[in-house]
Amino acid sequence: MKIVSCHNPAGLCQARQLIAMASCSLNHKCILGRSLRAILFAVSIVFSFGPRIRAQETTNPNAPVVKKVEPPNWWVGLTQDVVVLLSGRNLQATHAACNLPEVLVSRTQSSISGDYLFVWLKLSPQLKSGTAICRLTTAKGQTTFEFPIAARKQILGRNQGLAPDDVIYLIMPDRFANGDPTNDEPAEFPGSHDRSKPRAYHGGDLRGIKAHLPYLKDLGVTTLWLTPIVKNGAAADYHGYGAVDLYAVDPHLGTLRDYQELVEAAHQQHMKVFFDVVPNHVGPLNPWVKDPPMADWFHGTAENHLTSVSPMKAGFYGQAEKSEVTNDPFEALVDPHIPQQMRKNLTDGWFFGKLPDMNTENPLVVRYLIQNSIWWAETSGLDGYRIDTFPYVARAFWAQWHQELRRIYPRLSTIGEVFHPEPTVTSFFAGGRKGWDGIDTQLTTVFDYPLYFALRDVLLNGVPAGRITNILRQDSLYPHPEYLVPFFGNHDVSRFAGATGAAPDKLKLAFGLTLTLRGIPELYYGDELGMIGGGDPDNRRDFPGGWLADEHNAFTQQGRSREQQETFQYAQTLLSLRRAHDALRGGKLWHLASDESSYIFLRESDEEKIVIAFQNGANPKTVNISLRDTPAEAAAGISTLLGDGQADLAGQQLKLTLPPQSLTIFALQ
Ligand SMILES: [Ca+2]
Ligand SMILES: [Ca+2]
Question: pTM value?
Answer without folding.
Answer: 0.91
